[in-house]
Amino acid sequence: MLDTPPLAAAVERSADPAAARALLARLLDEHPALGDELATNALLRDAVVALSAASRSLSNALTTDASLLDPLRDENGFGRERDLAEYRESAATSLDAAQDGNGALRRWKRRELLRVAARDLLGAADLPAVGRELAALAEVCLVRALDLVGPDASLAVIGMGKLGGCELNYASDVDVLFVHDGDGTAAERAARALLTTMSAPTVDGIVFRTDVALRPEGRSGSLSRGLDGYAAYYERWAQAWEFQSLIKARPVAGNTDLGQRFVELIEQFVWPEVLDPDAVRSVRTMKARSEGEMQRRGLADREVKRGRGGIRDIEFAVQLLQLVHGRHDPSVRSATTLDALAQLSTGGYIESDDAQQLDDAYQFLRTVEHRLQLQDEQQTHTVPTDLAARTRLARVLGYRDRGDESALDQFEADHRAYQGRVRSIHERLFFAPLLDTLAGAGPLTAEAVEERLAAFGFLDVARTRAALRELTQGLTRRSRVMQQLLPVILGWLSATPDPDLGLLQLRRLAEGDARSASLARIFREAPSAAERTCRLLGSSRVLGDALRRQPDFVEVLGDDEALSREKSRGELVEQALGTLTWRASVEERRVGLRRFKRREVLRIAARDVLGFAAIEATERELAGLGDACFAAALHALQPPLPFAVVGLGRLGGTELSYASDLDVLFVYEGEDADDFATAEKVAEQLMHQLGGITPEGQTFRLDANLRPEGKKGPLARSVSGYEAYYERWAQTWEFQALLKARAVAGDADVAGGFAALIEPFVYRDPFPDDGVREVRRMKARIERERIPPSEDPRFHLKLGRGSLSDVEFTVQLLQLQHGARHPEIRVTSTIDALDRLRGAGLLEPGDADALQDAYRFCERARNARYLLTGAPGDALPTDGRAATRLARLMGYVDQPQAGLRDDYRRVTRRARRVVERVFYGQE
After folding, report:
1. What CA–CA distance (Å, rounded) separates 438 from 469?
2. Which residues contact residue 667 at a Cβ distance below 8 angstroms, ignoring those fewer than 6 apart?
3. N or C: which end of the chain has fewer CB within 10 A?
4. 113: nearest Cα among 68, 161, 49
């Protein structure tokens, strides 16, 4: 029978002749009566041959049950798309009298799935029709499954995802929510039974994989909720992606009236009067994370769904524009991606040419996805790496060798072209029409422009318009480049903590023809540098000002290797010394050090904000920079006697923040009045060189108030002078401060002598009980008195309960108590000291972790606040917008302000419990 001309011809022109021959041989062995029909019925023959190459699972099913071919014997019905009513009628005919309801439902679903696949493969149904039929098939299966488990009039099934959008895949999960009226226990029982009927594996396979992970609280939440329960959750707890997913919600089974009331309930959440920019930011961040995961796994080019230029790019763009404009324009709210795309084009929200290209790409990519999934009815979205498998895929898609081009070559060229086209449109889709409208030639109304700008975080429309005009004005090459890049640039800026600030600072950065041309060149040639520049400009006023002063640094932002490398203290010292070698006057040296410091702070802060450095590395480099400036300044002074600078506080601890003062002591070797006068002059000159105000600003704020006698005492003392003071007059807090003492610059012998001198004063064995009481009294007094009235004590980063001072005092008390017997804990860094205390068994691992978590959180928040404002701040902002920008800079996306404060409470409460037990001795 395989040699009959019609059958042989069909086999030879198939996507996989060998697979076709193998299936036909098996089929005829099992069902000989099919031979004549395959020879004479062209539709049946073509369908079987097409299925043989496209679907291993359906081929196997055919050999077991030839009755699956029954729907293909109705040529008139085969050529026509079935609607929901027809599927219901077909199900009733096949299932109403069945003895084994579950088995009959699975067999009916398999037969109808084969019919849809055959229509698809033979070109009788386009992609939208295939999606609609698969969704209708799943919907009827849900209705029949609910009937099988015992219909519950109080339960409604809501279709979500591809089911809700009537665009189901062959191997899609059927995403649903359950909503009930009345008894939640009965509804939960019915919902669980329905899921078992739909998804439980049997020898006949499953009906459909049915997923309820989109329900409130995900897999941890109740299977079903009442309307009030959904309303309470969506009002208080839901995240932006959950509202995005509800765009596709529609009733599919159960109580239709209840399902419709659910849809009416969610409208206020999906289409709010005012769209929070953080909602847009949140869904964009989720998309970026998913894409980043594909990149990390090496699937960015092979993943047709989540890779660059893939299906998700199109779906995401459509849904985001729906969230922005659907609130005031109900005509763009379709749950079906291609229908919504057409609606957005008709409404002027997407250029018609872009919409057509996205439509074409979506149909191509979804068809590829269908062919991948049809092979084994498995959820896969990845083009295989195996050459034979890729070739088979290309041929199943309809490609054939043509001249010198193989089917695979043609498919891969088309795939790359569609990916590139989608990505290009996706990157400019949100802002290109907006820019055209602002220039007077675009499709959007003024209201739509303002709506879209606000949704992406640009709240000052007038300033945005002025900045964009200035960036693109003129007919120069630079202006043309900026016009081309601005849609992408606005996308980058919109993802920053403060898009308005970012655009303003970009405008300032591009001032002047030469600077603007250079910036345009770098942005065109180095997209990574451009994107990172936008991130810095929208994250920090401090960094925006620094970039404006040092525009050459923009090019460095494209160098991953340079940004990844932490500079050592020695390297910074060497560079600082080099800065001053050719500067002769004191004033020139002051200006030179200020410029060196400013350049290095920009580099360090860029590494910090862009995620190239952890908080410890950032503060270590800042401390190294402080050391380097002291070393260079002292070297330039050439002191005539042995002289050293000792760091205390954060400088000594190598944990300097951006806003920290440099706490120092000045030590020299000498005994007579002339030595003292010389040393005092050197100290004064250092204070002036580094702490004085120059036209370039101040290099560092210096603080020598921790010296003996404080502000009343001399700036510099000899080693013996310090010894005399510490023996007779020093108080406990002064010895505690010396825990942080570290040589910063100058004569190594003098610094070493000072370190040896202070050791017996700091590390006493045993540390006296009255010393412990004094440390605790001082800490309690600070808690009562030190927080300024203008700062919120509930969220204070330095003096709040469980915050920085709690951690530091706890660590320092343990060092004072145990340092004499445990030299290994004598380190100046708080984080390092906690590691050493844990290692020495002096602090429980969980306690050390709690203190480190609180310390890192509070340090990151203080640093971020300074970068945002340029001013020191020791508490979380009370102003809502400022707090939101701070939270965004720290990486919070969903409900950023609430997330930031919740994390503050979590880490500080945990740390405070440790402090009360370890520091205060409370059980």
Report:
1. 9
2. 643, 644, 645, 646, 716, 717, 718, 719, 722, 750, 751, 754
3. C
4. 68
Among 355, 322, 329, residue whose Cα is nearest residue 248: 322
Q: What is the DSSP code (8-state) at residue 653?
A: T
Distance between CA atoms of 33 and 10, rounded to whole angstroms?
A: 19
Closest-CA residue to 155 (of 220, 251, 266, 248): 251
Tell me the HSE value of 651 on the side-chain side, using a 13 A CA sphere: 28
pTM for the full model?
Answer: 0.82
φ and ψ of 545, to 5 deg: -65, -40
Q: CA–CA separation, 190 vs 101, rounded Å? A: 17
Q: Please, what are the averages of pLDDT over each run of 10 residues along the chain (923 residues)?
A: 80 92 91 89 93 94 92 88 94 87 92 96 96 97 92 87 97 95 89 93 86 94 96 93 96 96 96 86 85 86 92 94 92 97 94 94 97 94 94 96 93 95 88 78 81 88 84 64 83 92 91 77 89 96 94 94 96 92 78 91 97 97 97 94 98 96 96 95 94 76 95 96 96 97 97 97 95 94 78 88 96 97 97 98 97 98 94 90 94 89 96 96 83
Q: Which position has the token pair 């300074």?
A: 866
**Cis bond before residue 766 (omega within 30° of 0):** yes
In this prediction, residue 502 carries a pLDDT of 95
Secondary structure E strands in 695-847: 697-698, 702-703, 716-718, 742-746
Q: Is the dihedral of CA 110, 112, 117, 122 positive or negative?
A: positive
End-to-end CA distance of the chain: 89
Give residue 919's identity as a one-letter amino acid code. F
Question: Are 212 and 222 contacting, i.e. CB atoms less than 8 angstroms apart?
Answer: no
Look up residue 828 and give its DSSP letter.
Answer: S
Place of tokens 């952890």: 614
Cα distance between residue 865 and residue 714, in whole Å: 35
Burial class (CB in 10 A: 0-12, 13-18, 19+), 401: middle
Q: Which two tokens stand for residue 722?
A: 């310090």
554 closest CA partner among 540, 534, 572:
534
* Other beta carbons less than 10 A from residue 444's beta carbon: 20
Per DSSP bridges, beta strands 662-668 and 716-718 are parallel
Q: Tell the burial category of 356 from Cβ atoms under 10 Å away from its Cβ (0-12, 13-18, 19+).
A: middle
Strand partners, 596: none
Q: Are 177 and 385 in contact (CB under 8 A)?
A: no
202 strand-pairing partners: 205
The closest of 572, 509, 492 to 546, measured between CA atoms, is 509
Stretch (H or E) spanning 372: helix 352-374
Residues 6 or more apart from 178 whose CB is under 8 A from it?
155, 156, 157, 158, 187, 191, 212, 215, 223, 224, 225
3-state secondary structure 490-547: HHHHHCCCCHHHHHHHHHHHCCCHHHHHHHHHHHHHCHHHHHHHHHHHCCCHHHHHHH
Burial class (CB within 10 angstroms; exposed 0-12, middle 13-18, buried 19+) of 871: exposed
Residues near 159 by beta carbon (within 8 Å), at least 6 away in sequence? 135, 139, 142, 174, 175, 176, 248, 249, 250, 251, 252
